[in-house]
């Protein structure tokens, strides 16, 4: 089983084509986030705190962009479920 087949099994999608679409969505989202930083940083100045603030603030925007691209490419359900899992891990409560 190749790389695509392993991802297909892990992500529980029914075709190798969907794996490629999902990888494309992740790539476009990352590229968009980098592009936004290149556009915004000159407007904010070259301060050290901008990078720190950017990485804290970009998380919700990254997830929103991921959902938008996911819906555009027809994988909205997969990315909605992905976001639910992601945020449930972040905000997981400890059961004592």
Note the overall shape: globular
What is the domain tally? 1
Radius of gyration: 16 Å
Structural class: mainly alpha
How far apart lie the N and C ends?
A: 42 Å
Overall average pLDDT: 89
Secondary structure: number of strands: 0
Number of helices: 4
Order of helices and strands: HHHH
Q: Mind describing the biggest β-sheet?
A: none
Outline the low-pLDDT stretches.
none
- Kindly estimate the percentage of residues that lie in beta strands according to DSSP: under 5%
Helix content: over 70%
Description:
The protein has one domain. Helices cover 81% and strands 0% of the residues. It has 4 helices and no strands. Helix 1 packs across helix 2.
Give me the secondary-structure topology.
Elements: H1 3-11, H2 16-44, H3 48-72, H4 76-90
């Amino acid at each position: 089983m190749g790389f695509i087949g392993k991802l297909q099994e892990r992500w529980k999608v029914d075709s190798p084509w969907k794996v490629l679409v999902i990888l494309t969505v992740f790539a476009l989202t990352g590229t968009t986030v980098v592009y936004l930083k290149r556009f915004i940083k000159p407007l904010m100045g070259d301060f050290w705190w901008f990078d720190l603030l950017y990485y804290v603030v970009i998380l919700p925007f990254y997830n929103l962009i991921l959902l938008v691209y996911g819906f555009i490419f027809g994988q909205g359900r997969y990315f909605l479920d992905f976001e639910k899992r992601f945020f449930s891990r972040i905000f997981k409560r400890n059961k004592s």
